[in-house]
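Hi support team,

I submitted a single chain yesterday and got back a structure, but I'm not sure I'm reading the token output correctly. Could someone confirm the output below corresponds to the sequence I sent? I've pasted both exactly as they appear in my results page.

Thanks,
R.
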Amino acid sequence: MKRSEHWRLFDVFKKDTVCLDIETNGFMPESGGYTTLVGVFDGYDYQCLIHGVNLTPDTLSQLLSGYKYLITFYGAVFDIPFLERSMPQLHISMPHFDLCFGSRKLGFRGGLKKLEAEFGIQRDEAVTGIDGYEAVKLWEYARLGSSEALALLKLYNREDTVNLFSMAMLLYNKLRAQTGIEEYL
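Hi R., thanks for writing in. Yes, this is the structure output for that exact sequence:
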């Protein structure tokens, strides 16, 4: 099945799905870049792996091995290649519903936060307005010892990651309806 059609597997693998979002230090792996946080959410529990604490290729591989289906937003272009370039021993090969491209198939444009607003998906007020650039700054403050910055960065990542599941359900239903299959059921 073509990667662009992996969205069709959402309903089949919903119980074995993991949403993933990363934060970085702002540089590409070839220029000293690394993943600062990896958030994962399976529809029930959110987990956060943190650089220098519990984020290693082994812990991430072990965590992902319990799932059969991946959901990201622009992860096919950024998150997964970044992880695999910065952790060469890591390989993520499960079917992947990239919500960015699913939303584009439906005519939506914009990033995750814009789509969340369009679909009425709320974020915690503490992280409303924070973007990727702010996340890089929060990591720098955390690296320098600010536990408040780390807590805010984790909350920002949690909102990004957890909201992917709700958005996947909405987009899946819209994509499915667009196929016309409902006429035959």
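A quick pointer for reading it: The first strand starts at residue 17 and ends at 24. Let us know if anything else looks off.

Best,
Support desk
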